[in-house]
Each structure stands twice: as C-alpha cells, then as structure tokens.
Amino acid sequence: MPGHLTDVASNDQHNVKPWFNGRVDLSPAVPRLDSLGFPLVGGRIDYIDGRSVAVIVYTRRQHVINVYAWPTARGNDAPITSSSHGYNLIRLPRNGEELWIVSDLNRAELREFARLLDRGS
Fold first, then answer.
1. Structure confidence by residue, pLDDT tens digits, 13-42
2. Can you give the pLDDT at residue 21?
3. DSSP labels for the chain?
4. Which residues are CB-neighbours of 2 under 8 A, at least 6 positions away?
5. Which residue segment(s) compose the domain that 105 sits in?
6. What pLDDT sits at residue 65?
7. Whole-prediction pTM value?
8. Domains held by the chain: number
9. In a domain, 2, yes or no
10. Which residues of 78-105 are buried (b: 16+ CB within 10 A; e: fewer)?
C-alpha cells in the first residue's frame, strides 16, 4: 500500500519483534543490521492469500527491503532468487519460517542482505 510502509516505526528490534505477538501466527526474528548498512525501519502486517503475515522493513540507501515471514513446515532449504516486475525476490525457508525478501535493490546486495539476515537470526 502506498504510504503504508510500517504499522510500528522503530529501529529497535525490542520494539518491533514483540509488536507482532498476538497479531500474526509468527513473531519473526528481527536482527539489527544497521552497522552492516541495512537499517531497521519497523514492521507491519500484510495479507497474502487471505492470511495475515509479518513484514519486517529495512532500508539500503534509498531502497526499501520488505521481509515477509510466516510459519512453515519446510526445513532449511537453500535460498531461491528470482525477479518479477522490476523487483528481486529471495525465498529463504529456515527454522520453521518461510521468508520472502522483496526489494528493488540490486540482486547482489539483496543476496548479501539475505545472508546477513540468515546469519543474524
């Protein structure tokens, strides 16, 4: 939704992670990656296929990175990278979470972000 980047605006993981409790099926890990060039902006709830999902929002320079998260029975599969309509997407199932990382950030930097996110969780 244009103009609706976050429901909770905070660069503090201790504000964002607990905000999801009771609002969605999963309160995802929210690592701080500010010192690595990916500042946390906050979080929001979006709807995918009729279900509420957590979205953690980061930035890289002028680019927004949305990390969609919901529970899954899948294991820790290898990340899958694709693109659609000018956006790069990375599917990263791990530890009972399905993560989709979506941004117009270039593919190399988005892969680096996914690696850091996976390591920091």
1. 999 999 999 999 889 999 999 999 999 999
2. 94
3. -TT---SEE-S-HHHHHHHTTTTSS-------BGGGTB-EEEEEEEEETTEEEEEEEEEETTEEEEEEEEE-S---PPPEEEEETTEEEEEEEETTEEEEEEESS-HHHHHHHHHHHHHH-
4. none
5. 8-120
6. 98
7. 0.92
8. 1
9. no
10. ebeeeeeeeebbbbbbbeebbbbbbbeb
CATH number of the domain to which 49 belongs = 3.30.200.100
**pLDDT at 8 (0 to 100):** 95
Structure tokens at 17: 């992670």
Place of tokens 């929001």: 44
Rounded-to-integer distance, Cα 67 and Cα 55, Å: 5
- The answer to whether the CB of 110 falls within 8 A of the CB of 91 is no
Q: What is the pLDDT of residue 58?
A: 98
First to last CA, the chain: 27
Position of tokens 């244009």?
2
Residue 45 has a pLDDT of 96
Residues of the chain with pLDDT under 70: 1-3, 121
